[in-house]
Amino acid sequence: MADLLDLHGRVVIVGAGIAGLMAALELAPQPVVLVSRDGLGRESSSAWAQGGIAASVGSDDSAALHLSDTLMAGAGHCDATVAEAILSESSHAIAALEQYGVRFDRTACGGYAFGREAAHSRRRILHSDGDGSGAAMTAALVTAAFACPSITSLTGVEVRRLIMQDDRIAGVLLQRGRQVEVLRTERVVLATGGIGGLYDATTNPVGNFGQGIAMAARAGAALADMEFVQFHPTALDTPRRPLALISEAVRGEGAVLVDQKRQRVMAGTPGADLAPRDVVARAIHTITSDGGKVYLDASQALGARFASRFPKIHQLCRAANIDPAAHPIPVRPAAHYHMGGIATDSRARSSLDGLWAVGECASTGLHGANRLASNSLLEAVVMARRAAKDISGRPTHSPGGVAKVPPVALPAADPETVRPIVSAALGVARDGTGLRAAMAALLPLARGSDPSADPAIVALSIAVFAALREESRGAHFRSDFPVAMSGSTRRRLCLDDIRASAHTLLAQPMLRSA
User: Fold this and answer.
1) pTM for this predicted structure
2) How far is CA 390 from the centre of its chain?
3) What is the pLDDT of residues 388-413, one digit of tens each?
């Protein structure tokens, strides 16, 4: 591991996707340490994003319209004040990305080429390199980070624990292989991505199981909205893991969902094939759980234009021996995005002094119960910039000593044991019986110290939040409580509360459904 002598006291950013890279760049010229277990931008959901970034910068659009769409998709659970503030910064976020080298697709006349996705009332999705938007944006930010002298990168290194002293952040525990060291710092930004790796069927990197959430929870941070996991309705249904994604933008260009009898799946549903993701995912799940098949048919809407309009998706389909120009594409729902995570305020501050969280590992309240498509990259950029501004305005201190940490390497975290539990009980449809079984299996794992412990902490948190929410709202669907209650409250719990709630819920008799 690199000599850490000159790195003590710097801001530590954990994770090198779009959120982490933006935070590092926006903090310049303040020295930062950017820590990634892989190379910068690799093993990042950001780099896999096909849909692009939602921004109300078109002549027929406004932040008010964007907010209305976001609140509608969020199923009455968004923090409207937070949502309005984030969405109003769309133009600033796009300008910042362009400053760092991102080039958005343009029309022949030179204006932005806007795409449309589900539940958006306007074409407001900006792409970079077509359906390779995430990779193109990430690559530009990585190039900018390498050129920024204030950023020191530690790659191939994992942050395994947050070190607390006197109720505030005092350092991070770094591990490479069996080598362990402490990097002293009073300022940590978690940008560690999502939880898709907890599921058998996911469109995310399988190694992403919520590492940042687990670390923050262990340190005592409050978590919020953990029950809300978004399942993308149209993952390419093949044996490949993780599953390839068929972007919503394909439906935005007119492709339709059909069953094995070639009947329209979304006919008669408000919004039809561009209904909110939770609605579409449940419709497909209902068919596939009964043994049926669902396909995305682009043959009429796109036909021969498919390859030029969606070159990356075309390659994915052809690799699976599917010609999307002529034949329907088999699809299924898959875990795609987590609306919950580390509870943060409008400045990206967590409940722990010295800890900020940005990107998918954070829960700001923007997405509510169901993320509006492509709002996540906008949130990542805006909140990374806000975190950087907040940190820059904070007085710095020379890091003192921290309590001695035993130089013992922790076992590599592995979600394999947890994955079948999560997939069975915490999927598109949930019920009390399954949630109780999941909590009973996860609770001892979350208290243990083997490779499943950290994934089990995250999974247990989802299960407890889901069990406490006895209603169906957005991406959280309870078959035993299928109706939404009037009003919705964001729940925040720390790990001790989560464990105590699990014990209480398991000790209670099963309640009769509403």
Assistant:
1) 0.94
2) 23
3) 999 998 876 665 666 566 668 899 99
